Amino acid sequence: MCVIQIICLAVIWYLTQKQHKRNKLPKIIREEREQARNGLMKHILDNEERCRAIVRMGPIAFLNLCDILQRKGGLQPTQRASVEEQVGNFLYLIGHSVRNRALNFFFRRSGETVSRHFHSVLRALIELEDEYLRQPNGEEVALEILNSNRFFPYFKDCIGAIDGTHMRVKFLVQDVPKFRGRKDYPTQKILASCSFNMRFTYVLPGWEGTASDSRILKDALRRQYPLKIPEGKIYLVDAGYMLKDGLITPYRGERYHLKEYSRNPPRNLRELFNHRHSSLRNVIERAFGVLKRRFAIFTSAPTFGIKNQKKIMLVAFILHNYLMGVDRDDELIAEVDRELASQTRYESEQNTDSEDSEEAARGALIRDSIAAAMWHDYIS
Q1: What is the mean pLDDT of residues 204-228?
Q2: Which of 52, 138, 179, 205 is least enclosed by beta carbons within 10 angstroms?
């Protein structure tokens, strides 16, 4: 008997034993569990506030997501579990960063079943990446810029902001030092770009927490599927990144953060530029804040392998974009805005990587021309 036949027989035996164990449960217990699960999903979806607390979105958005995952992501109900239960299982885990045993109790399922449902939903959500994580082509001016005389026409070519964030992770002991940066615990860095409607357009997870912002961005620009900067367009970045024709940093040595201007208006063109640059670039900090407040898995180390950790991060960004389109939750956004306004800003690391002098000069020319036009109109 060949190895393949032995493996097939072993799999058949395992599935048979598993089905046998399941069928050994008295029928009345199986029916009680089924009723409990159905009642649980009804209980969640019958109340808007309760639904947001448990699955991190309203009932309409939740049911719409289930429909999308079934039509476009290939997620299907199983013999005993609906699509709604599987999606609820997944959202409860990433929304509250609970362990498998908590899901066992909550959904009256075995650990193996809960894990299988989780990975089914994870795969289905990744199928939506091309639809919900799209890089801008730069053909249209963002409404947030077009409708503001503080930003238009000076930033008419700006298509978004770029920044990085840290996420707690678990690694092998020998890998911990390179993932421990300014945090007291190991983290991975996630680079992302977002548009001014707070939707992410590019995500690159997986870098160790000690990596510099500029190094990660250079890698993103050179990858097989890179971060794209359309010709003549710009992204706003902080001082931790390189200055070049497609990436505009603030002026160094000048006031920058919004709190610094609360009582003292800009005194020169550099300060005016920094103030408005900060006002616009703040959108990515707000987007990160909403993402982390909605999905608690960002603030506690998940118990998955590194590959699945990266997938979960990507899926969280996809879900964020989906919800910004159908269920913004303005109360949540307001909470994040209040938190950002009250906290003391961490000073971003200064870019220590060597910059191409020609590219930096082109970037400086773009920045100076914006600042000069802005200052001319401001003092007039």
Answers
A1: 89
A2: 138
> Residue 234 belongs to what H/E stretch?
strand 234-236
Model confidence over 268-299: pLDDT tens digits? 999 999 999 999 999 999 999 999 999 998 87
Angle at which helices 59-71 and 27-45 cross, to 10°? 120
Packing angle between helix 100-107 and helix 83-96, nearest 10 degrees?
A: 140
Contacts of 128 (CB under 8 A, 6+ apart): 68, 69, 72, 73, 318, 322
Q: What is the pLDDT of residues 77-111, one digit of tens each?
A: 988 889 999 999 999 999 998 887 777 777 777 77
> Helix, strand or coil for residue 248?
strand
String of b and e for 53-68 (b: at least 16 CB within 10 Å)?
Answer: ebbbbbbebbbebbeb
Dist. CA 217–CA 355, nearest whole Å:
13
H-run or E-run covering 192: strand 187-194
Please name the residue that has the structure tokens 């971003």. 348
pLDDT confidence of residue 141: 94
Measured between alpha carbons, how far is 282 from 375 in angstroms, rounded to an integer? Answer: 21
pTM: 0.86
Encode pLDDT of 13-34 as tens digits. 555 555 544 555 566 655 566 6
Amino acid of residue 264: N
Query: 167 exposed, middle or buried (CB, 10 Å; 0-12, 13-18, 19+)?
Result: buried
CB-based burial, 244-270: b 16+ in 10 Å, e otherwise: bbbbbbbbeebbbeeeebeeeebeebb
